[in-house]
Every structure is written in structure tokens, then in C-alpha cells.
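Handout, section B. The chain below has 401 residues.
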Amino acid sequence: MPALGEAPVGRGELGRRGSGLDLEDREGIHRSILAAGSRGGLACFNRSVTPRGTDWSLAALVALLVLSGVLTLFAGRPGDAWVFVVHDAGAVALLLVVGWKLRRVGRRVVRPRGWDRRTAAGLAATALVLAALGSGIAWSSGVDLVVAGFGLLNWHFVLGLLLALSVGGHLALRAKPVRRRDLVHRRQFLHAAGIAVGGLAAWRAQRPLEAWLGWRGARRRFTGSYPADSFAGNAFPATSWVADRPAPLDQGAYRLRVAGLVRTPLGLGLDALGAREELTATLDCTGGFHSTQRWRGISLGRLLDRAGVQAEGAHVRVISRTGYRWSFPLREARGMLLATRVGEEPLSHEHGAPVRLVARGRRGFQWVKWVVRIEVHAEGDPGAPASTVWSSLTRAGRGEA
């Protein structure tokens, strides 16, 4: 296809220059001419976006959504709200580009006799894109749907992962390199800018529109989570990352161990921990709810002071009975709470009894439950994310120990 900005060419000229164009270029030119003819002229040809440019735009937007989607799992502070803005606006942009592509290939789609393997694969990928986008839009609009035991937000994560794998596989096997003509032109820039502005405008209008319509989606927190049973003790929903389901701990025999780079290792029973300190904090679960509670227990900073952190100690690892763990910078960890009570009630087993971590500003999966050990280390813990999976496979995680 000639670079956008060159003069449009007629059929005779196409025949003379055809040997210098690949199949994609010739098909793109032919479609542009047909579209222009249907409008009574060739003016829209100069406004066309190359087929390859459209495909790479789709791939780039999927990559943006996957990256921002992963980041949303760790964004719990108001200052992290930009991550959700990027994700939401990117979703609208992807929807616009998919619509642009469907308009371009629409004639081929409505004629099943002309389908081939590429057409079938393209339709399957389009269906996956629309399912991923549709599940996210439905969730953000307030739809509460459970399918096969999983909520709509869980399905959104799964569909997004499948979409990323599909696009990644396609790029690895069939992707054509981006050419200068696919990127460098004022029309291409205006097209991209229009999509970006459209995405931001749709994101900005969504909440006011939902509030005007009286939809549940208007009550979401900036993370997209919905309110659930704040200041109601153990009544808020109980969830576990992946599938941890340990047996209840014997509270009489319970000991919390503090070890690692400390001068005085500790082993404390529940009576020694007490519930003298209180922290009001919002548990924001990546499963889609948030709940603000008054948590009572002992400050992790106070506990670390009792043990005496050695000079090289810089990170604190909080470990569950199941083997699940998470690591935090020492300075941040000092502001956290090891809770034994929520409101006026002792923690229930489902909520992490006898001790769970309260990590204000972190997402719910980092609020480690069934805490049995605190360790101080010089370095962070890159293996912690993997423990979110394998902890559910341990005997303790399955409730067999």
C-alpha cells in the first residue's frame, strides 16, 4: 500500500505498479477504492489505516491491557488510581479499534462460503476480545453474575489471560513486521489520537452516567471494587487467594515465631500478642469487594522492636500456615498490624484466625491470613508470588495437616 499521504492511484496505475506491492497492500488498496467508490469519490482513501497498522494497534492495546491489568492487582492506594484509568480507557480504545477492523472485513465475514482458516481464527479471536471486554464492562456497570462458581471479575481475568496467550501466539507465528508506512503519517497520528481521546472521554463519562441511571456501578471504589459489610465484624466476605483452605489452628497451642535477622528470636502465644492497638483500614479484595473495619491486635513495628532488627535487616516476610507468604520493606511493615480481632469480635477462621496481617494501602491478597511466622531478611522475596499457587497444594493448604 502506498504511504499514507501519497496521491491515490487508479485501477490502471495499480496494474502497472502491482509487481511492487504485496498481497496485503493490494487488498487494502482495493478495499479502500471500493469504499471510496461507495461514497462517490476517492477522498476516504487518504484517511485509511493500513491493515497491518490496524492489527498491530490491536496487539499493542491488548499488551497495554494485560500489563495494566496485572498492575491493578497491586494498586491499592488512591495515588495508584492512574493504573485503573489507563486500563479502562485502553479497553474502550480496543473496542473502537475492533469496530474499525470489523467494518473493514465485514463483507468477508458475512459471506461464510469465502471463509478459510484465517477467517475462522480471526472470528474466534474477535469473540475472545469481545467476551473479555464485555465481562469487564458488565462488571464495572454493576452486573453481579456467577458462572460455574466464579464471579464475573474472575472470568474477566481468565478471558484476559486467554486473549494475551492468543495474541502472543499469533505474533510469534504469523506476525508481519511494522513498516514505516504503517506508522508515520499525520492521518495515522490523528487516528490514534482520536481513539485515545475517545477512550478517556468514555472513562470520564462512565461514572456520572451510571449515577444518573441509578446503576450499582456508580458505587465502585477507584479500584473497581464494590462495598461490602463495613464495620460489621466478621460479616464481610471471606475469600482466599487461589484455594487455601487450612484446618483451624489450635489457639491454645498457637505460637507466632519471629526470626531471621533479629537479635532476639521470639515465640509468642495469643495472650502475649493481645489486642491493645487499633487500626481502621480498608480491605480491598481483588475478587471485587472492599470493606472498612476497625482491626485490633499488635503493631508489627512494636513486635519487631521487641525482637530487635539487626542493621542489615531491610525486608519483612509474613508467612501463613499454608506456606503462603508476602514480603514488605521494613519501613512500610512497621506501620502494619497483626490483628486478632475485627470490630468487637475475635477473628473467625475464614478471616485468618488467630492472626492475620492488616496492610493498609495493599490489596487483599497481601493481607496474609493464618500468620505463624515473621522473618526479617536483607533482601526482598521474589518467590512470594509463586507461593500464591503452590500454597494451595501443600498438605496444610488443603487442610490435611
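Note. Residues 49-219 form a domain with the Fumarate Reductase Cytochrome B subunit fold (CATH 1.20.950). Compare this with the example in section A.
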